[in-house]
Amino acid sequence: MTRARICWDWPALTEATQIDAGAMQVGDPRADAVFLAVHQPVPIGRITGELVSIVSEKDLLSEFVKVGDLNQPLLLFVTGDVGSGKSHMVRWLRSSIGERPNWHVVYVEKRNTSLTRVIEKIIEGLDSGPISQIRDALNDAGAESQTLEQAQLRLLNELRVLVQTDEAESVLGRSASHEKTRLDGVVLKAARENVRVLIGDLHLSDYLQRPGGPIERITKLAMPRTSDTDDEVSEVDVRLDEHDLIVEGVNFSDLNQTAAQTVRALSNTRVRTAVAQLLNHYLPRAKARVFAGRNTNLLELFAEVRREIESQGKELCLFIEDLVLLHGVDKELAHALTIPAAPGLCRVRTAIAVTSGYLRSIDTFEDRGERFTMDVATNTVAQDDQRSFVARYLNVSRLGLDVVAEAIDEIRNARVPNGCSECSVRTECHDAFGASTDGFGYFPFNGNAIGQLTHLVSSKTFRPRDILRRVIRAGVQVADNELKESGTFPSKRFASELDPNRQRVPVATQQFLEGFTSSSEQEITLRNFYSEHPPKVTAELARIAKFLDIELSELPKSPEKDDRSVSRPPPTPSSTMEESAFDRWFLKGTRLPAADALKMRAWFFNQLYLRLETGDHGHLVTKKDGLLIIGGVTVSRDRSFEIENSGGGGGGQTFDGPKHVFKRTASTAKLFADIAAVESKKFSTDDNGSWYFLAMDVLDDFAGEVVAAADAFRQKVDPEESIIVLRLLGRLSAQGADDGVLNVSGLFRRPTGGADAGRTTFVNETDRMRRNALDALRLSFTQAQGNGASSLLDAGGLYKELSATTNLSKISGTKSTAVLEALRGFHVRFATDAWRPLINTFDQVLQHLDPGEDFGKAWTDMRELVNLANNAGLLPRQDSKTRFEEALEELPHGVDSSWRFVARHRNSDDLETLVWDIPNDCLIHLQKLQRLSEQCVSILDHIERSINLDARPHVEASREAISAEFLKLCNLLDDVVKS
Amino acid sequence: MSEDLKVTIGARSARARLLVADFVQRNEGIQIAENADLILRRVGRTVTALADQNELLFRLEAEEIVPKQTAQRVVETARKGRRVLQVAANKLKDPNNDVGDVVKTKSIDDALFAAENIIKFRNQAIENAFITFRNQHRPNDLNEVQAEGIEPLTLSVKVRRLQNVLASQTQVSSSAVLTELDKFRDALRDWEELRPQIEAAQKRISPALADFFRQIPQGVAWQGLNEEVREWLDSGSNGDDYILVRRDRHP
User: Fold this and answer.
1) 20 to 30 A from A762, CA-CA: which of A229, A411, A784, B149?
2) How far is residue A418 from each of residues A399, A423, A425, A472, B91, measured CA to CA in Å?
């Protein structure tokens, strides 16, 4: 009986492994105790220029608390990807600085905060006149009390005002991922106009504010958050991304013309990108106005904070758990924190957790501080530290949070109580599963399991959060559930997310174990994760199995033909209990259903593969898509195992490979029924597994037939035919750099069809021929006896033969075999399919372009015309110029050579030979050319239609008539004046 | 399109560029011509209106209707406009000057605007002068005469018509002033001629009926409907124009 028991408190573990230990409230003694109890020192990277050196957290602490010339602000950045532990490290720094009466410490945690509260936090406890005024201004802004809807509206409104009133002729736009792009000229103008409409139009503005939409997301992140378990704020979420502006497919009703135009414009990725970048440029200012108040001068605020602290004779010590929380005021903060101390301005030291990308996005900030990174390679974290990292969380979960909280004083002095100390099975448990150097037990893991699982979630970079979530929590949860159902731990659910297939235990071994033991799932899991040398049973693993009361099987040395004896007899199915489909098939002559027949075929097919794969027959064996290929002979799962009077089996298609026919006999029916029962785990142990030996006899015979067929194939190969096949198919591996020499090494790799469907079809159609030809040549020249895939080395004899020849462009000459004829057919179809769309597109474009057209001149002329016509209002559509320019810009490099290639060969009689020379992406080139020419023709047609050559100025008014009228009016006005 | 007839994009764009350039140039010419036409029509309209106004003023002067003098500031702008037009007329005589350049200037526009302002101002003065004339010449006894009850009926109808014409306060546009003046003078003359007949007819009305008619504008009390009045109301269609109304007790 298992001695394992649940020794942890699941709620305690859940709380201790919260997404981020940094999310535990600072100053809460209980949270502080848990934080310190689980804290495990790990290496940190120190970034100096391009170099990263490994330092310890103590080095980081020394750097932060150093005494010296601190007139220059001390600024430490702790960078790293999401979940790397950077906030945790800032929190640890905070808890490690000790008592510092002369420091004014401000800790900005990411838990339960908002932009407004961050500012309030910074001015907390300071009461000088100006700061009080700013506090009042913050309260007046009412940011804390406004609803989400109000804040969204205000944010949009501020954005619109900023975008419309700013007259800057160029702005530095920002993408969501911090890349900077300069926006100016027409792009900036168009982006401003699109923003004006996007925010100004009722329907579009509503769409931006939709639930789950970008404005709601950005606003929510700046507003007070109440949940303690909020996910980390992602820096991508605080900005707009072009995807946020996708309006295609949205059914807007009653859009006015301008809004409809904007919707159309936004269907273009580049327009969306420009609009998003423009909005991102103004977003921080808009957010500051909404959440800090329009009249709050943040630069002045931060300066005043430093003045006030200086007046108290202190220095400012600022910890920020996540800089992204300050999006909106980060630039001002960066500026304020990097001004050197001076009389009246306090010294300042700051530690900030921030992702590298976000840090780069704040101009000049990054260069002014020392950078440390939590992104360190997993192999720099010592094995004991990795294990201790997990053990500390397990220990806290065993103690329970109340006990941990009570022991806060001891924990502060680095004496963490041990949850295993009172356990009655501690000795056996630690002997089996192991414990950390501090004595914290690893159960329900062991050292190997921790190492393996850590490697699976952090293969390159150490990822604490993933280890918490996917190793500790997931693993303990499975153990928690399964130990309640005694005897099932560790089942296949253990670490199923990380290694569902138990890759360290070979398939054959798994199949063996699945068939022979009732605790096979547990055994496979133990061998896979807990063994030091998977799948071997080591002394440690044996102790674990004993502790868990799991009996381990003895594996056979190798599954060879004569070695049928295993430590335990194969189970005997309990199939006789009820009448099966197989009984009915034999006894009553009913047709064996396709599903049952398929299961049998699959079983025999898989067993045959296992047998042939390791057999000593000298043929290469491959398996794919229900086919097993051995030395030029194909065995089909569906058609090689014919079952009399059964469903499925490939219908009436012909199949010329080897076949085994199962006759409708009593022994076959029993064999099938037994196999089916074993597969569905309904077995008993009273028959010594005789069915197994019967099945092996069938497989032995059939495997012999297949190998004989492969031997026969080897005898009849035609090397000359194979060389011709390879010389032609070698073109597929030439990758466009054909110099006439056969690419021999390339022949051993399956060529790719790329994006070209016709080429892919050709590759698929001829792949069998290529492999057969390679097999044939290998057999002829090298008489290979080895196993595994054919390789260049394998074909030493053939290499000289092949490399002396050149590629073929098509099959011609005197030799004619069925294979060559078939290959010729495939090649002709490939060439026809490749040329047809090219010629069709070419012919359409030819209506508007000469075969020898000077593209450079034509597009320059067109561009000038479009500009002229645009100014004269003669373009067919408002966006004609943009569409033309886009089409022109999309014209790829090399389009003219593609055009001239097709022009030169369009009427050739030898398209088969020429198919190899078609330039890469030729069809795409012509299609782009077609699009551009259609744009041009549409513009030209419109201009020619619009201009009325007969329109002449019709001047009724002659100079004399006007002059005369002017004089008459003079006289009349004279009268007025005189009267 | 066959190869021979094909015009490539390159060739078409070169030709189209010439077409567009020509189009732009011609468009400019058309615009200038249109501007000159517009100016000519505008000047023509102003000249006609001013000339007609002069004629009207001359006629009204003969009728002793004298509109108010044109304001000095308007006269000043007219004087300035006159000089501008004179200069422009001289420039137009020189074929070296472009018609468009001469006519499409702000000073010409201002001059024409000043002339149009004068027309508006003088029209207003004429209309006001006619109102004053009617007020001064309206007969004093016009409202004392009650057309009701006057016999014969034809005389009563004439009285009503003359009262309508002579009492009118309606603003008359300057173009209609002469017609309305004729109608007013004719009515005055008829009123004077009919006055003896009206006075005689009024005397024929009994005192009770006369009282009744006098009270009608304010409403007549039930006691006012004596036998004589009721008899009159019952005869012929005299009563058709009267209804009985209940007095509101709580106004």
Assistant:
1) A784
2) 7, 10, 14, 18, 111
